[in-house]
Amino acid sequence: MTDGVRLDRWLWAARFHKTRAKAKTAIDAGHVTLNGHRAKPSKEVAIGATITVRRGETVTTVIVRALSEKRASATIAAALYDETPESIETREALRARRRMERAGLRVPITKPDKRGRRALQALKTRRDTPE
Questions:
Q1: Above 80 in pLDDT, residue 2?
Q2: Strand 58-64 vs strand 50-55: parallel, antiparallel, or unpaired?
Q3: 20-71 pLDDT, tens per residue?
Q4: Which SS3 state, helix, strand or coil, does residue 131 take?
Q5: pLDDT of residue 1
Q6: How far is CA 61 from the centre of its chain?
Q7: 129 vs 106: CA distance, rounded Å
Q8: Which residues contact 99 (CB under 8 A, 6 or more apart)?
Q9: Which one-letter DSSP state was computed for residue 120?
Q10: What is the C-alpha to C-alpha distance for residues 114 and 8, in angstroms, rounded to an integer?
Q11: Distance CA 89, CA 20 (A)
């Protein structure tokens, strides 16, 4: 008997995917890595393994803390893993960027040139003057 759980089953139990079939599809598509390498759905997950899951733009890196073959409540599922600090930081930065974009603000790719700086200064002074 092995002391691991199938990767697709663990992802399903940890609530990263709604069904095992969707977990298998994500693994086959290369959206899931186990210890930095692509893996097959039947690969055994052990405690201490690092799993990276990409869902859309969001990339989540977790360290396996417990094993489970059964899907349970969200609180129990959250106890199966610990998310890395780097993963939390990038996820929060992505969330902040999305929030700004929804508000109509886009982060510029480069610094504004002289003409752009003058336009910004004119916009700011127009806002500051009382009507």
A1: no
A2: antiparallel
A3: 999 999 999 999 999 999 999 999 999 999 999 999 888 999 999 999 989 9
A4: coil
A5: 41
A6: 7
A7: 25
A8: none
A9: H
A10: 54
A11: 28
In Å, how far are 4, 44, 47 from 1, measured between CA atoms? 9, 12, 16
Tell me how far apart the alpha carbons of residues 71 and 115 are, in angstroms, rounded to a whole number: 58
Q: CB–CB of 23/16 below 8 Å?
A: yes
**What burial class does residue 36 get, using C-beta atoms within 10 Å of its C-beta: 0-12 exposed, 13-18 middle, 19+ buried?**
exposed
What one-character-per-residue DSSP string does 66-100 give? ---SS---HHHHHTTEEE-HHHHHHHHHHHHHHHH
With a threshold of 0.85, does the pTM exceed it? no
pLDDT-derived band at 4 (thresholds 50, 70, 90) equals confident
Domains of the chain, start order = 5-128 (3.10.290.10)
Task: Give the position of tokens 């989540």.
Answer: 60
78 Cβ contact list (under 8 Å, min separation 6): 15
